[in-house]
Amino acid sequence: MGSLSFKTETAKQRFRQVLKALDSIAGKDQLAFLTTQRVSKESGISDGVLFRHFVSKDAMLEAWIEQRGESVRLLLEAMPGGRGGLMYVVQQLLKQEALLSFLCCQPMETPYLRDKLNVFRSQFYRVMLLRIELLSSAPSGIAPEVLADHLMQKIYRAWNPANTGRNRQKELLMSQLPWETADSNKEMFPARDVLQRLALNDSGFVFDPVNGRSFSANDVGLYILRFLQQSDDIDALMASINRDFDANPAEVQRDVTEFSGQLRKFLA
Questions:
Q1: Cβ count near 245 (within 10 Å)
Q2: pLDDT confidence bin for 236, thresholds 50/70/90
Q3: CB under 8 Å to 63, separation ≥6 — which residues?
């Protein structure tokens, strides 16, 4: 437990139980509106005993953030150079579900805890971006920020408990970076039959009759959806956007990647 000290072995064990309980809850993406009753149930520790070790629910969450954040920091510190270093970090995350959940779950509602968590997440992103910038094997013509966003999207999809294909995503990431996968472009968006069920109108209103959700898309988002309802050729989509909107290719790649991530969350 790092520099932490405990008066008794029982206190140390209780601390570990609470952390594992929070790992489990985060892994189900249910950390945002946590209750002490939920922690008690997951950890097997009564409310009364919990509050002998932690003064509040936020204190439990803060301890969890500090401990898991330190683990992420040590993982990045041990990261080798080059492509092997990126693969090492990704593989370790996929093997350590607690760290994966730490980086991907919906943040808690308390502002200072959310900010504290986002500091670790931002640090992780910056390190991955820096390593991608130094990568000699990165595809040319695509901004490092786009590749970093693509990688983070794939990591999220491999973790997302609502994603029925996450085991396949994990399998792919264990051996290849996203841009090295032959069909990575096709995986950016949901299958065409899924997109075809969406109801679109000219004002940008998008409705999914299956999950009952709706959202508003801008002109480019609406353009993307209409294109993909007819074709799943991502390269043709990129070229079409570049032509019809007179846009910078790197910006188009970044915006399409961001939109695909938002769309997958909407359809999850």
A1: 14
A2: confident
A3: 15, 18, 19, 54
Which contacts of 191-200 are long-range, i.e. CB under 8 A and separated by 24 or more positions?
191/232, 192/228, 192/229, 192/231, 192/232, 194/267, 195/225, 195/228, 195/229, 196/229, 198/225, 198/229, 200/225, 200/226
Does 9-179 carry CATH code 3.40.50.1370? Answer: no
For the stretch 1-26, pLDDT in tens is: 444 545 678 888 989 999 999 999 99
We find that the CATH architecture of domain 188-267 is Orthogonal Bundle (1.10)
Q: Are 56 and 113 in contact (CB under 8 A)?
A: no
Q: Domain residue spans in the chain?
A: 9-179, 188-267
